[in-house]
Amino acid sequence: MNKQHPPFPVTLFSFGYKYGAPQDVNLLFDVRFLSNPFHVAELRSHNGTEAVISEFVLGNSDGKMFLEQLQHTVLYYIKRLQESGKESLRVGIGCTGGHHRSVAVTEALAKSITEQGTEVSHFHRDISKESH
Length: 132
Fold this sequence. Notes:
Elements: E1 10-16, E2 27-30, H1 51-58, H2 61-83, E3 89-95, H3 101-115, E4 120-124
Parallel strand pairs: 1-3, 1-4, 2-3
Helix pairs in contact: 1-3, 2-3
């Protein structure tokens, strides 16, 4: 028998480690190992909500593999939290400045989890802060 669970709100957010890691999270992921568009002059002024940055960060084998593993991990965690009676999940995804990599990963993860039927909200804590 497949036990039905009430809606389980998931909040995903990006942040920049240089502005401090968040304290109010269940899961925290450091994506500073992914390709960094900041070091490409023509990409620096863009952010992770834009396709050009998403493709740069997630369009290679490392980015694709990481996103796939992250999706599985978060979906598994949601299931286990629901089974244990928890009511929500907050996931922080960080890169250096909170403009490129963490934003691209947060956007892609929010989309994929929503497609799996889970209620997701997301925001980008540091995207409006200065980028140097």
